[in-house]
Write a structure and sequence with these properties.
The protein has five helices and no strands. By secondary structure, it is mainly alpha-helical.
């Protein structure tokens, strides 16, 4: 667990800056990858790997943790986007894609965070 507070203007700035860059990185990857629905899956898995790596290397770093882990990686991989994608597949009746997307997002995301945070 963190040994410092994430409040205060300096940390808010770091989280905001990381969030803006993470959001831009997400948009860049999604528009760059021609994988239709799976481009968001790839971005989410990359972000989960970065999240696990960030937990391991920057958990007690007072500047990099708020910027990289909280701001960048969490903005790059938003859960709302994940749910939106599942609902979109559901509404289109693409059951097999919905099942694959759900399973791979959860299993690979969990494995990447656990493995890279060791």
């Amino acid at each position: 667990m963190l040994d410092y507070q994430l409040g205060g203007p300096y940390n808010w700035f770091l989280i905001s800056l990381g969030g803006v860059l993470g959001t831009l990185m997400r948009h860049f990857f999604i528009t760059l990858l021609p994988l239709h629905y799976y481009n968001k899956l790839v971005v989410n898995i990359i972000a989960c790997g970065l999240l696990g790596w960030g937990f391991k290397h920057y958990q007690h770093h007072k500047s990099i943790y708020p910027f990289f882990v909280i701001g960048f990686t969490l903005a790059m991989s938003s859960f709302a986007s994940y749910i939106f994608q599942l609902v979109e597949l559901y509404q289109k009746g693409q059951w097999w894609s919905l099942f694959i997307y759900f399973c791979l997002s959860n299993l690979l995301g969990l494995l990447f965070v656990v493995y890279l945070s060791r």
